[in-house]
Amino acid sequence: MEVILMKELLEANDKLAEENRAYFSSRHVLAVNLMGSPGSGKTTLISAVARELGEIPVGAIEGDIASSIDAENLEKQGLHSAQINTCGECHLDSRVIRDGAEQIDMKNGIVFIENVGNLICPAEFDLGENVRLLAASVPEGDDKPFKYVPMFSYADAVALTKCDLMEAVGFDRANFFKGLRAVSQAPVFEVSLKKGQKTQGIKGVANYLRKKYESLK
Amino acid sequence: MHELPVVLDLIRVIKEEARKRGFQKVTQIHLVIGELSSIVDESVQMYFEIAAKDSPCAHAKLAFEHRPAMLKCQKCGKEFPHKKSFQCPDCGGDSVLVKGTGREFYIRSFDGQ
Prior knowledge:
The complex is a heterodimer of chains A (217) and B (113).
Chain A: E1 2-8, H1 11-26, E2 29-36, H2 42-53, E3 58-64, H3 69-76, E4 80-85, H4 94-104, E5 109-114, E6 131-137, H5 144-147, H6 149-154, E7 157-161, H7 166-169, H8 173-183, E8 188-190, H9 202-214
Parallel strand pairs in A: 2-5, 2-6, 3-4, 3-5, 6-7, 7-8
Helix pairs in contact in A: 1-4, 2-9
Chain B: H1 3-20, E1 26-34, H2 41-51, E2 61-67, E3 70-73, E4 79-81, E5 95-97, E6 105-112
Parallel strand pairs in B: 1-2
Antiparallel strand pairs in B: 1-6, 3-4, 3-5
């Protein structure tokens, strides 16, 4: 006998994601799911945005397959951070977020959930975030929006990082935008955080998040 | 890569639904998978065979129904399934993704006795 179900898979994850969302909301916290390839500059972006946000407290839940390098680095800079090691899993899911959130015990601020460096799997899992921010770096190449459609199409905002390298790596900016605009209307912030040089574009990311934070109920 | 948690969820749901209906055995499960959901049939199949062992779902056949992401040409308005290119097959214009398409990921039905 055939039984019609029409039941969403990932339901268990999505249910926990809703609980996380309610948890963050009850604490007046804006949760930002920060995704991107390994080495795209996610952790650097968090530190720079935190400095730029000034009066708004920033915390971070760091997801990595192994090590606590990122959380330790951010702690040194005065950010409350929790490290989650996924022990081989390629993404964070909503189950592990609550532990991290309770560790940093944040209220009235912005919490970055730095996902495992990966342009594929993290796009599938709702963590209970308010904003999905994608860090796409220039050296990855201008064709990535054409190749990783799910990730680029799900992002609410894109930080195009390492823009100081555009000329050096022959990045075709127009082609990047062509690919991105085919799948998304998300705002793009062109960022450069090269050490020893004037930073670029980070104010745009910070202002975008500040506005989102201020519009929390 | 991330199919294992998905398969565990699938087995949990089907076991529960089969129990509710008094089924001893599940013979087929029909899944609908959108192109943008990044789920690979072979991986689902592999994990399923391992994880469904000793459950009413063991030996159930998995049927995969694929749904494409749809694109809309900005020039002539034609809608067409995304294959390799974002160029319209009719007029060659650039197209954009139709929001929400290709993201399906659900159990359509199952057969049991």
